[in-house]
Amino acid sequence: MDLVKRTLYRSMIGVLKIYQRLFLDFRVWGRELIPPGPKIYVTNHITSTDPNWVLPVFAEPVHVIIGPGYQSKVTAWIFDFFEQINAMPDYRKTVVDAAVRYLQKGESIYTAPEGDIQEPFQLGHFYPGVARIYRRTRAPIIPIALVAPRSAMSEWPMKIVVDGRVYRYIMVFRGPYCVNVGEPFYPDTTDDGGSEEDQRVMEEIKERIRLLVDDVRTNKFWQ
Known about the structure:
This protein is an alpha/beta fold.
């Protein structure tokens, strides 16, 4: 990002931090584990507002891989201005290349590889894009667990349909929201890879996030 975009981005993050302090019971563990340099942030997906609450945790501007949010022309313009990564059907084949370009420039990316919101404390299928991005950059993968109780969530009546698939809007605007950052992960991969290797890497990432979710639920939740 250029200086203007970085300044606007940081202003936006400042507003989100103020909101967190005023209205959320916001908790972060493991922030000190995040290394300098470009990184691949990987989280589970529990609400439509996840990026709003997670991005302020990071020290640097981050490029988010976004799917259904790009359906709106207004939000699409905003996302493009801040150099987010379009993962809508017409752009899916360009996602890995775009993420690699940002990482090679020394900038970090953020993705939720489940692609859709899951039930609290549950993990869905992890799609293989992260493994492909990692193989080409060797940037550290930072697994992150997001946890909030169902009582803090509200579902909006409107929905979004992409390629016949219905996506719900589930928000957290008040109450507890927890972010548990894990240690940087450098999976063993070959340069050429393949679908089996990609799936193995994603299962390893998923297991790390599952353990982080359990850590919040059993050891840290509400403490």
